[in-house]
Amino acid sequence: MKAILCESFGSIGALAYREQPEPAAGETDVVVAAEAIGVNYPDGLLVQGLYQARPQLPFIPGMEAAGRILSVGAGVSRFKPGDRVVVSLPHGAYAEKVLAPQSAVMALPEDVSFETGCALVCAYGTSHHALKQRAALAPGETLLILGAAGATGIAAIEIGKIMGARVIAVASSEEKRALAIAKGADDAIGYDDLRGDIKRLTGGKGIDVAFDPVGGEAFEAVARSMAWNGRLLVIGFASGTIPKLAVNLALVKGFACVGVFWGAFTTKEPEAFAANMAELMGWAAKGDVTPEISERAKLQDAADVLTRMHQRKTLGKIVLLP
Predict the structure, then answer these.
(1) Cβ contacts of residue 311 below 8 Å, gap of 6+?
(2) Which of 54-58, 127-131, 162-166 shows the lowest mean pLDDT across its residues?
(3) Which residue in 114, 142, 231, 303 has a CA-CA distance of 20 to 30 Å to 99?
(4) 3-state secondary structure 275-306
(5) Which domain covers residue 171, as residue numbers?
(6) Is 277 inside any structural domain?
(7) Which residue in 30, 34, 26 sits closest to 2, CA to CA?
(8) Same domain as 85, residue 41
């Protein structure tokens, strides 16, 4: 089978498209013929050696894939060959055939496409966990979303509206802001005068919940714009700069800075993760969430796609098609 291989930590462009041995299911494993593979920002961090974990080299990147099961191990009881599924992994998904433990596999309803199934894992899973478990977002609260035209940002817009929030999207171009509005944001602003725009849109009250996958200078502007009892969610650092928090701001403004590490959540709280995914699948089946699949690329083009994503030149969700 063909797969994308990371042979050394470093440039995303060094990823190789290689022939690899056919995977074989162990006792409690399944092998999935991938129909769609999700591309996520952390994939690029992992390849560069900049993520929280470092797999043993060489490894296949990729956190999510959807398709039909080809084979199962003797100890697998929940699935059988032919089942439609989506898998959630630390890595290993950029391949024509994906090996996964039964515990990492979820059934995919017939009315949810393979591409949508991929988008519901990392991107929607992160945003859902952030807003539901970490922020406890309440109806009527104001939710600010940085990087609002990316996959997690769009997910946060849709989920925030389902949860009853007023959503202010922040994005760097007119095209991105238009997409955010189309996906349900109540307002869309840029980064040039973030504090001033937040003050204007909230009548000086500030933000109840801030969703920040960007970091950098925007983080400080948002920290200075939080409302009393606000929650500033740390999602990631797409700007390339990990900011520092002036903790006196948290003290005098009475807000909490809350870390969101979805990958750890999936392993430390598997029952909550399963419940979240069931809820997301239900929303997708009803059309309440509709991931923005902006690009469908070939598996061999993974390096180019990831490079553009890390240059912040992409919109929405990108999937690879083996």
Answers:
(1) none
(2) 54-58
(3) 303
(4) HHHHHHHHHHHHCCCCCCEEEEEEHHHHHHHH
(5) 123-263
(6) no
(7) 34
(8) yes
